[in-house]
Structures are given as structure tokens and as C-alpha cells.
Design a protein that fits this description.
Radius of gyration of chain A: 21 Å
Largest sheet of chain A: 5 strands, antiparallel
Number of helices of chain B: 11
Helix content of chain B: 40-55%
Helix content of chain A: 25-40%
Structural class of chain A: alpha+beta
CATH class of the largest domain in chain B: Alpha Beta
Strand order of the largest sheet of chain A: 4-3-2-1-5
Largest interface: A-B, 89 and 77 residues
Oligomer: heterodimer
Largest sheet of chain B: 2 strands, parallel
Radius of gyration of chain B: 19 Å
Order of helices and strands of chain B: HHHHHHEEHHHEEHH
């Protein structure tokens, strides 16, 4: 989807400010969100691409004003609700009880939810399927063009490269999950991932491109087409 | 300015997080002790010192360096390093005429087992938006001035392949041990927003 998360090339965000004394976690709740997500990742409740896409579905104004782990909190809560593991109204009630310093929480029923999940309902983690192999369609050094596509769902093809031509620097010929379909449970569609090298002038135009700059980006095979005109 | 200072009104997120954790405990999805352990792991065990060890080894051992450039994760495994969220690692080498720098414009992909968790600035809109378009300017603002004859390679790591920058070994470092060299290598060197290796004294 063409969302605010796809930030490459945008103007207006100001300077990059490095805090050399930043702790590993800047908030305690952020550390809980991150680590709960890590544990749930391992339980097979969601897949990586689905989790990323959930974040992309935040309203743009919320995306920009929430911290990184605030976005993760949003995604965790929504997917747990959708999977009927922890429902939104349960979180609302428990949060209200915590906010009003209740000593005793209203207990939840343990039987009317999708937990424990059956083994075959659990989602497999990872993106490289080592037991599988693929035959890459493109070769190192080949000129390719990024497909000019604007899918409304999840995609890892960045807006700033669409329609642009570059050279394949490296063929990552392992069997990689295609995030655009896995995010929507439409299959893993294993394929090669290519590191494509773009001249900055191709991306940003001759007048604005910085000199002697190359951008390398890893794109799935489905995002590329042969560029016969410029070969 | 960090997000927690910018949005003090968002303390509701702490309450909501506590509510979810409490419910997940209650229905036996996880325990808070599990979460404590993971927090401690990221606070204490994982961090840029891991990556620094890898780079320092490559600086003193040319055969290891070759293996590291050929298959980053396999070489890291020789040093007992590995973990979630990195399935394939490409190490990219700085030279006098090449500077590498890593970003993820779509989220904030980062080699967790090698560098720990990404800092706030790496996840910021400013870094993610600007680095692919004007890295020379961003680097200059961060104190890295590159002549025009130095080629900049930006790695936008939006797939599940992760990147680590190998800075140039400093001159006149022959008398430093591998452990002393590792002390000189920072997270910022290995992301590529720092270049020069500062030697003490």
C-alpha cells in the first residue's frame, strides 16, 4: 500500500538526531511490547509480514505520532483481537481497571477463545525456506526495471524505486518467502531476492541527485522485469 | 528529543500494555517471567559489542575476513554469534574510496543478533526518508565529511537480508590487540553513520 511508512525520499522530517546515551529501551512499556511480541512470534500466532502490514494500516497521523513500539502495541492488540486470543473489549476493561487502581481484576473466561492454538494452526516463522530451492529468473549484472505497481495490500517494493531501472548486483538465490502474499495468507510463493543497484540520478533526477551515490535495495523477483530497452 | 518526552499524554500506552500482558498471563499464552528474561537478554547480552568483536577479528585475520565477506552469518557463527531476525547477513566493506551506510526505509530492519536493537534515530522518519536521497548531507550533519570522489553505497535493507558495515582498519594500529581494536568500533561505524576510527591517546 502507498502508506506513510514508505518513507524513502520524503522531505520535511528535519535533521537526524543521535542521542549517544540512549538506553536499550527508552520506556518500560516499550520493552514489554517488544519482548511480548518476540515471544508471540515464536508461538506462531502471526507471521512477520502480517505484523508489518498491521502497522502500515495505522492512520497516517497516528503512525507519525506514535513511537516505534507504540506501533508494535497497535499491531499486537489488533492481531490478538482478530485471532480471538485476547479481545479488544477485554483489553478495554482490564485497562480501565488498571487505570482506576482496582486490586481485583474481572477474570476472563478461558474456554471461549482460540487459545491454546492447535499445532497446525500455528504459523511458521522465518523467510528463508532452507529445505526448498528456486531457479532465479535474472542474472547478476542484468539490467532490470522495478515493476510500476501500487498494490493496496502489503508490499516491500518501495515507491521510490518503482518504474526505475537498475543492475542486479547480487542474486540471493535462496528460497525466500514473498511478503506481499504471505501477509495476506495467500501463500509463501518462494522466490529469489535480488540486490539491485541504482544510480542516484535514476532515482532522484540529474539536478537533485547527490554525486557518486548508489542505492542498493533487495527486491523480490515478482517486483522486477527485464529491462530490454536499456540492456 | 525522544518520543517519550514529545508525547507525555501517551501514558495510556503503558496501561494498555500492562492490560494485555496481564490477560496473556491469565490465559496462559506467556508469563511475565518469560518477558523479564527477554528484556534482560536485550539489555544485557545483545549489543554492538558483538558486532565489534566480529569486525576486529576480520581486521586481524584475513582468512576470517574472506569468510565473513562471503557468508556473514556463517562467519559470525564461528564466534558463537547468531539469533532471531537475521537469516542472511551481507558484510559490506569500506575502503578509502567507498563508504557504506545501511537503512530500512519501510520499517527499521536491523541485524539484532549482531548489533542489538536499533536506536531511536535509526527508526526515525528523518533517517528513513533522507538517507536514500541525500546521504552525503545526512552524513555531513553527523560529522562525516566525504569528498566527492568517495562513492557512497546506501543499502536499503527492506528484505530479510541484513547488512553490516566493515569500517576501514585504522592506520598505525599494528600494536593493538584484537580486543583493543574491538573497543574502538562503535554501533555507528557498523551502520555507517560514522567512518573514522578514533584511537585513544
Amino acid at each position: 500500500m502507498n502508506g506513510i511508512h514508505d518513507m524513502g525520499g520524503l522531505h520535511g522530517f528535519g535533521p537526524v538526531e543521535i542521542d549517544p546515551d540512549e538506553p536499550v529501551f527508552t520506556t518500560e512499556w516499550g520493552s514489554r511490547v517488544f519482548c511480548m511480541t518476540q515471544v508471540i512470534d515464536g508461538l506462531g500466532v502471526w507471521n512477520l509480514d502480517e505484523h508489518r502490514h498491521e502497522i502500515e494500516l495505522m492512520a497516517p497521523e497516528d503512525y507519525l505520532t506514535h513511537s516505534y513500539y507504540g506501533r508494535w502495541l497497535f499491531a499486537m492488540e489488533r492481531i490478538l483481537d482478530r485471532r480471538n486470543i485476547v479481545r479488544r473489549e477485554e483489553v478495554d476493561l482490564r485497562a480501565a481497571e488498571i487505570a482506576s487502581d482496582k486490586r481485583q481484576f474481572t477474570p476472563v473466561r478461558k474456554t471461549d477463545r482460540n487459545w491454546p492454538m492447535s499445532e497446525d494452526a500455528r504459523v511458521r516463522w522465518g523467510a528463508w525456506r532452507k529445505e526448498e530451492s528456486v531457479t532465479p529468473k535474472f542474472d547478476e549484472g542484468q539490467r532490470v526495471r522495478v515493476r510500476n505497481i501500487h498494490p493496496p495490500g502489503h508490499t516491500r517494493v518501495t515507491n521510490y524505486t518503482r518504474g526505475k531501472s537498475g543492475d542486479i548486483y547480487r542474486v540471493n538465490d535462496q528460497a525466500w518467502v514473498f511478503p506481499d502474499t504471505r501477509a495476506h495468507y495467500q501463500g509463501e510463493n518462494l522466490q529469489a531476492v535480488y540486490t539491485v543497484r541504482f544510480d542516484a540520478q535514476t532515482l532522484w533526477g540529474e539536478s537533485q541527485a547527490e554525486p557518486n551515490l548508489y542505492v542498493y535495495i533487495d527486491l523480490s523477483e515478482n517486483h522486477l522485469e527485464a529491462d530490454q530497452e536499456n540492456e | 528529543m525522544g518520543h517519550k518526552h514529545a508525547h507525555p499524554e501517551k501514558a495510556w500506552q503503558a496501561i494498555r500494555t500492562e492490560a494485555i500482558e496481564s490477560l496473556l498471563n491469565e490465559i496462559n499464552v506467556l508469563t511475565s517471567e518469560d518477558i523479564d528474561k527477554v528484556v534482560r537478554h536485550y539489555e544485557e547480552n545483545v549489543g554492538p559489542k558483538t558486532g565489534a568483536k566480529v569486525i576486529a577479528r576480520a581486521w586481524v585475520d584475513p582468512e576470517f575476513k574472506k569468510r565473513l565477506l562471503a557468508d556473514g552469518l556463517a562467519a559470525c557463527a564461528e564466534l558463537g554469534i547468531g539469533g532471531p531476525e537475521t537469516e542472511l547477513l551481507h558484510v559490506v566493506e569500506n575502503t578509502s574510496k567507498v563508504h557504506n551506510v545501511v537503512v530500512c526505509t519501510l520499517c527499521s530492519c536491523y541485524p539484532w543478533p549482531i548489533l542489538g536493537l536499533p536506536p531511536v534515530w535509526y527508526k526515525s522518519s528523518a533517517y528513513r526518508s533522507r538517507l536514500v536521497r541525500e546521504p552525503r548531507k545526512v552524513l555531513s550533519e553527523l560529522g562525516v565529511e566525504l569528498q566527492e570522489d568517495v562513492e557512497i553505497r546506501v543499502w536499503d535493507s527492506v528484505s530479510e537480508i541484513r547488512y553490516l558495515v566493515m569500517p576501514e582498519k585504522p592506520d598505525h594500529a599494528e600494536n593493538l590487540s584484537e580486543a583493543e581494536l574491538a573497543e574502538l568500533i562503535t554501533r555507528d561505524h557498523m551502520i555507517g553513520v560514522a567512518r573514522h576510527i578514533h584511537q585513544a591517546g
